[in-house]
Specification:
Helix content: 40-55%
Organism: Echria macrotheca
Transmembrane segments: 128-147
Biased composition (Low complexity): 199-212
Keywords: Membrane, Transmembrane, Transmembrane helix
Number of strands: 6
Protein name: Mitochondrial K+-H+ exchange-related-domain-containing protein
Number of helices: 11
Amino acid sequence: MRLFLLPISTRRTLLYCQKLPLAASEKQTWNDWVQSKASRTWADWEKQEKGWKKSVVNYGNYAFRRIPYEEWGLKSVPPLSQRRREVELNGTEKVEVVYPKSLLAMDKVPKILEALATERESLHRKRLLWCFVGMPLTIPIGIIPLIPNLPFFYLCYRAWSHWRALAGGKHIQFLLKNNLLALTPSPIVDEVYAEQKQPLASTPEPTTAPATDEFKTLDPPASKTPNPDGETMLLSQANGKKMTQALDLPQLEVELERAIWQVETAIRKSNEEAKNQQGRSESPREPKSDSADSKEDKKLQ
Protein backbone atom coordinates (compact mmCIF):
# COMPACT_ATOMS: atom_id res chain seq x y z
CA MET A 1 0.00 0.00 0.00
CA ARG A 2 0.99 3.67 -0.37
CA LEU A 3 -0.17 6.59 1.80
CA PHE A 4 -0.86 10.12 0.57
CA LEU A 5 -1.03 13.29 2.68
CA LEU A 6 -2.75 16.05 0.71
CA PRO A 7 -3.43 19.40 2.46
CA ILE A 8 -6.93 20.72 1.78
CA SER A 9 -6.54 23.90 3.84
CA THR A 10 -3.92 25.36 6.13
CA ARG A 11 -5.46 23.36 9.00
CA ARG A 12 -6.78 20.19 7.38
CA THR A 13 -5.06 17.38 5.51
CA LEU A 14 -6.57 14.46 3.62
CA LEU A 15 -5.17 11.00 4.26
CA TYR A 16 -5.61 8.47 1.48
CA CYS A 17 -4.30 4.92 1.13
CA GLN A 18 -3.69 3.52 -2.33
CA LYS A 19 -4.04 -0.24 -2.53
CA LEU A 20 -1.24 -1.57 -4.71
CA PRO A 21 -1.79 -4.61 -6.99
CA LEU A 22 -1.60 -7.91 -5.15
CA ALA A 23 1.51 -10.01 -5.59
CA ALA A 24 1.12 -13.41 -7.23
CA SER A 25 1.44 -15.14 -3.86
CA GLU A 26 -1.18 -12.94 -2.19
CA LYS A 27 -4.88 -13.71 -2.10
CA GLN A 28 -7.79 -11.31 -1.87
CA THR A 29 -9.07 -11.09 1.70
CA TRP A 30 -12.69 -11.74 2.65
CA ASN A 31 -13.08 -8.09 3.63
CA ASP A 32 -11.80 -6.90 0.23
CA TRP A 33 -14.16 -9.30 -1.54
CA VAL A 34 -17.18 -7.96 0.40
CA GLN A 35 -16.19 -4.36 -0.38
CA SER A 36 -15.73 -5.17 -4.06
CA LYS A 37 -19.09 -6.95 -4.21
CA ALA A 38 -20.85 -4.03 -2.47
CA SER A 39 -19.25 -1.52 -4.85
CA ARG A 40 -20.40 -3.48 -7.90
CA THR A 41 -23.92 -3.77 -6.51
CA TRP A 42 -24.07 -0.04 -5.76
CA ALA A 43 -22.80 0.77 -9.26
CA ASP A 44 -25.52 -1.44 -10.77
CA TRP A 45 -28.18 0.32 -8.71
CA GLU A 46 -26.89 3.72 -9.87
CA LYS A 47 -27.55 2.66 -13.48
CA GLN A 48 -31.26 2.16 -12.71
CA GLU A 49 -33.40 4.91 -14.27
CA LYS A 50 -36.09 4.77 -11.56
CA GLY A 51 -37.49 2.62 -8.78
CA TRP A 52 -36.61 2.10 -5.13
CA LYS A 53 -33.02 1.08 -5.93
CA LYS A 54 -32.40 4.41 -7.66
CA SER A 55 -34.01 6.27 -4.74
CA VAL A 56 -31.83 4.41 -2.25
CA VAL A 57 -28.73 5.34 -4.26
CA ASN A 58 -29.71 9.01 -4.42
CA TYR A 59 -30.36 9.27 -0.68
CA GLY A 60 -27.31 7.15 0.05
CA ASN A 61 -24.95 9.33 -1.97
CA TYR A 62 -26.39 12.39 -0.22
CA ALA A 63 -25.66 10.81 3.17
CA PHE A 64 -22.22 9.50 2.15
CA ARG A 65 -21.10 12.98 1.12
CA ARG A 66 -21.68 14.17 4.67
CA ILE A 67 -19.63 11.46 6.34
CA PRO A 68 -16.45 13.28 7.46
CA TYR A 69 -13.62 12.93 4.97
CA GLU A 70 -11.31 12.03 7.88
CA GLU A 71 -13.36 8.86 8.36
CA TRP A 72 -13.18 7.99 4.68
CA GLY A 73 -9.41 8.46 4.79
CA LEU A 74 -8.93 6.08 7.70
CA LYS A 75 -11.28 3.57 6.06
CA SER A 76 -9.03 3.49 3.00
CA VAL A 77 -6.25 2.01 5.18
CA PRO A 78 -6.62 -1.80 5.34
CA PRO A 79 -7.07 -3.45 8.77
CA LEU A 80 -3.93 -4.87 10.35
CA SER A 81 -4.35 -8.62 10.19
CA GLN A 82 -1.80 -10.95 11.74
CA ARG A 83 -0.53 -11.94 8.30
CA ARG A 84 -0.13 -8.30 7.21
CA ARG A 85 1.62 -7.49 10.50
CA GLU A 86 4.20 -10.23 9.87
CA VAL A 87 4.71 -9.18 6.24
CA GLU A 88 5.29 -5.54 7.16
CA LEU A 89 7.62 -6.34 10.06
CA ASN A 90 9.68 -8.81 8.02
CA GLY A 91 9.48 -6.99 4.71
CA THR A 92 12.41 -5.29 3.04
CA GLU A 93 10.39 -2.29 1.85
CA LYS A 94 8.68 0.31 3.99
CA VAL A 95 5.25 1.86 3.37
CA GLU A 96 5.70 4.95 1.24
CA VAL A 97 4.16 8.27 2.41
CA VAL A 98 3.75 10.76 -0.45
CA TYR A 99 3.40 14.45 0.53
CA PRO A 100 4.09 17.98 -0.82
CA LYS A 101 7.45 19.26 0.41
CA SER A 102 6.42 22.88 -0.21
CA LEU A 103 3.61 22.65 2.36
CA LEU A 104 4.62 19.94 4.83
CA ALA A 105 8.00 19.78 6.52
CA MET A 106 9.36 16.24 6.73
CA ASP A 107 9.59 16.32 10.54
CA LYS A 108 5.87 17.21 10.74
CA VAL A 109 4.63 14.31 8.62
CA PRO A 110 4.75 11.66 11.41
CA LYS A 111 2.97 14.05 13.80
CA ILE A 112 0.22 14.68 11.25
CA LEU A 113 -0.21 10.95 10.65
CA GLU A 114 -0.40 10.32 14.39
CA ALA A 115 -2.99 13.06 14.82
CA LEU A 116 -5.14 11.73 11.97
CA ALA A 117 -4.89 8.20 13.37
CA THR A 118 -5.80 9.06 16.98
CA GLU A 119 -7.78 12.30 17.27
CA ARG A 120 -11.15 10.73 16.27
CA GLU A 121 -10.59 7.38 18.00
CA SER A 122 -12.96 8.01 20.93
CA LEU A 123 -15.62 9.42 18.59
CA HIS A 124 -15.60 6.28 16.42
CA ARG A 125 -15.80 4.02 19.47
CA LYS A 126 -18.75 5.95 20.89
CA ARG A 127 -20.68 5.98 17.60
CA LEU A 128 -19.92 2.32 16.95
CA LEU A 129 -21.54 1.53 20.29
CA TRP A 130 -24.62 3.61 19.47
CA CYS A 131 -24.99 1.79 16.13
CA PHE A 132 -25.03 -1.54 17.98
CA VAL A 133 -27.64 -0.14 20.39
CA GLY A 134 -29.83 1.11 17.53
CA MET A 135 -29.73 -2.01 15.34
CA PRO A 136 -32.19 -4.13 17.42
CA LEU A 137 -34.62 -1.20 17.56
CA THR A 138 -34.88 -1.08 13.76
CA ILE A 139 -35.40 -4.83 13.20
CA PRO A 140 -39.26 -4.62 13.44
CA ILE A 141 -39.28 -2.37 10.36
CA GLY A 142 -38.29 -5.45 8.35
CA ILE A 143 -41.74 -6.92 9.02
CA ILE A 144 -43.28 -4.44 6.58
CA PRO A 145 -43.59 -6.25 3.21
CA LEU A 146 -41.94 -4.97 -0.02
CA ILE A 147 -39.95 -2.32 1.86
CA PRO A 148 -36.28 -2.96 2.65
CA ASN A 149 -35.24 -2.23 6.24
CA LEU A 150 -33.09 0.76 5.28
CA PRO A 151 -32.55 2.09 8.85
CA PHE A 152 -31.16 -1.28 9.93
CA PHE A 153 -28.86 -1.59 6.92
CA TYR A 154 -27.71 2.01 7.36
CA LEU A 155 -26.77 1.37 11.00
CA CYS A 156 -24.96 -1.79 9.94
CA TYR A 157 -23.01 0.19 7.37
CA ARG A 158 -22.17 2.95 9.84
CA ALA A 159 -21.02 0.38 12.42
CA TRP A 160 -18.75 -1.20 9.82
CA SER A 161 -17.51 2.24 8.76
CA HIS A 162 -16.57 3.24 12.32
CA TRP A 163 -14.88 -0.13 12.85
CA ARG A 164 -12.87 0.29 9.64
CA ALA A 165 -11.82 3.82 10.66
CA LEU A 166 -10.64 2.50 14.03
CA ALA A 167 -8.79 -0.36 12.34
CA GLY A 168 -7.15 2.00 9.84
CA GLY A 169 -6.00 4.26 12.66
CA LYS A 170 -4.52 1.30 14.54
CA HIS A 171 -2.64 0.25 11.40
CA ILE A 172 -1.07 3.70 11.03
CA GLN A 173 -0.10 3.72 14.70
CA PHE A 174 1.57 0.33 14.19
CA LEU A 175 3.55 1.66 11.23
CA LEU A 176 4.66 4.73 13.19
CA LYS A 177 5.62 2.74 16.28
CA ASN A 178 7.79 0.33 14.29
CA ASN A 179 9.32 2.96 11.99
CA LEU A 180 7.91 1.30 8.87
CA LEU A 181 7.22 4.49 6.89
CA ALA A 182 9.31 5.91 4.06
CA LEU A 183 8.65 9.68 3.71
CA THR A 184 8.70 10.60 0.02
CA PRO A 185 8.29 14.23 -1.11
CA SER A 186 6.47 14.43 -4.44
CA PRO A 187 7.43 17.05 -7.07
CA ILE A 188 4.25 16.14 -8.95
CA VAL A 189 2.05 17.05 -5.97
CA ASP A 190 4.08 20.22 -5.31
CA GLU A 191 3.57 21.31 -8.91
CA VAL A 192 -0.22 21.03 -8.64
CA TYR A 193 -0.25 23.17 -5.48
CA ALA A 194 2.04 25.72 -7.16
CA GLU A 195 -0.43 26.05 -10.05
CA GLN A 196 -3.32 26.84 -7.69
CA LYS A 197 -4.46 30.41 -8.30
CA GLN A 198 -5.32 32.73 -5.42
CA PRO A 199 -7.41 33.91 -3.72
CA LEU A 200 -9.19 30.90 -2.29
CA ALA A 201 -11.88 30.73 0.37
CA SER A 202 -10.57 31.70 3.80
CA THR A 203 -11.77 32.64 7.26
CA PRO A 204 -10.12 34.71 10.01
CA GLU A 205 -10.99 32.02 12.56
CA PRO A 206 -10.13 28.30 12.39
CA THR A 207 -13.01 25.95 11.68
CA THR A 208 -11.34 23.07 13.53
CA ALA A 209 -12.35 22.22 17.09
CA PRO A 210 -10.16 23.63 19.90
CA ALA A 211 -9.05 20.11 20.79
CA THR A 212 -7.50 19.68 17.35
CA ASP A 213 -6.02 23.16 17.10
CA GLU A 214 -2.66 21.91 18.29
CA PHE A 215 -2.54 19.73 15.18
CA LYS A 216 -2.43 22.69 12.81
CA THR A 217 -0.82 20.97 9.88
CA LEU A 218 0.84 23.70 7.89
CA ASP A 219 3.11 26.67 7.99
CA PRO A 220 2.80 27.62 4.32
CA PRO A 221 4.29 30.73 2.68
CA ALA A 222 2.70 34.05 3.59
CA SER A 223 1.37 34.39 0.03
CA LYS A 224 -0.97 31.48 0.72
CA THR A 225 -2.20 32.65 4.13
CA PRO A 226 -4.14 35.94 4.01
CA ASN A 227 -5.43 34.96 7.47
CA PRO A 228 -2.46 33.27 9.18
CA ASP A 229 -4.39 32.76 12.43
CA GLY A 230 -7.44 31.42 10.64
CA GLU A 231 -7.85 28.98 7.78
CA THR A 232 -7.29 29.20 4.02
CA MET A 233 -8.17 26.70 1.31
CA LEU A 234 -5.20 25.32 -0.63
CA LEU A 235 -7.03 23.36 -3.33
CA SER A 236 -10.01 24.12 -5.54
CA GLN A 237 -12.24 21.45 -7.06
CA ALA A 238 -10.63 22.01 -10.47
CA ASN A 239 -7.13 21.49 -9.09
CA GLY A 240 -8.32 18.51 -7.10
CA LYS A 241 -9.12 16.85 -10.43
CA LYS A 242 -5.71 17.87 -11.75
CA MET A 243 -4.16 16.20 -8.71
CA THR A 244 -5.84 12.87 -9.45
CA GLN A 245 -4.79 13.08 -13.11
CA ALA A 246 -1.19 13.98 -12.23
CA LEU A 247 -0.97 11.07 -9.79
CA ASP A 248 -2.91 8.74 -12.15
CA LEU A 249 -5.29 7.90 -9.29
CA PRO A 250 -8.86 8.20 -10.60
CA GLN A 251 -10.18 6.54 -7.42
CA LEU A 252 -8.79 9.50 -5.42
CA GLU A 253 -11.05 12.00 -7.22
CA VAL A 254 -14.18 11.35 -5.17
CA GLU A 255 -12.17 11.52 -1.92
CA LEU A 256 -10.67 14.90 -2.82
CA GLU A 257 -13.98 16.25 -4.12
CA ARG A 258 -15.72 15.31 -0.87
CA ALA A 259 -12.96 16.73 1.35
CA ILE A 260 -12.74 20.03 -0.55
CA TRP A 261 -16.54 20.44 -0.46
CA GLN A 262 -16.70 19.75 3.29
CA VAL A 263 -13.90 22.18 4.17
CA GLU A 264 -15.28 24.89 1.86
CA THR A 265 -18.70 24.43 3.49
CA ALA A 266 -17.16 24.75 6.98
CA ILE A 267 -15.31 27.93 6.00
CA ARG A 268 -18.41 29.45 4.40
CA LYS A 269 -20.52 28.61 7.46
CA SER A 270 -17.89 30.10 9.78
CA ASN A 271 -17.80 33.32 7.76
CA GLU A 272 -21.60 33.58 7.73
CA GLU A 273 -21.77 33.09 11.51
CA ALA A 274 -19.07 35.72 12.06
CA LYS A 275 -20.91 38.14 9.76
CA ASN A 276 -24.23 37.59 11.56
CA GLN A 277 -22.59 38.03 14.95
CA GLN A 278 -20.95 41.24 13.82
CA GLY A 279 -24.27 42.49 12.45
CA ARG A 280 -26.00 41.85 15.77
CA SER A 281 -23.27 43.63 17.73
CA GLU A 282 -23.40 46.67 15.41
CA SER A 283 -27.21 46.94 15.27
CA PRO A 284 -28.40 50.33 16.70
CA ARG A 285 -30.40 50.41 19.90
CA GLU A 286 -34.13 50.84 19.44
CA PRO A 287 -35.34 54.40 20.20
CA LYS A 288 -37.42 54.78 23.29
CA SER A 289 -41.13 55.27 22.87
CA ASP A 290 -42.79 58.65 23.53
CA SER A 291 -44.55 57.29 26.60
CA ALA A 292 -41.25 56.11 28.05
CA ASP A 293 -39.69 59.52 27.35
CA SER A 294 -42.59 61.33 29.02
CA LYS A 295 -42.31 59.13 32.12
CA GLU A 296 -38.61 59.90 32.42
CA ASP A 297 -39.35 63.64 32.02
CA LYS A 298 -41.88 63.48 34.88
CA LYS A 299 -39.36 61.74 37.12
CA LEU A 300 -36.82 64.48 36.40
CA GLN A 301 -39.38 67.19 37.21
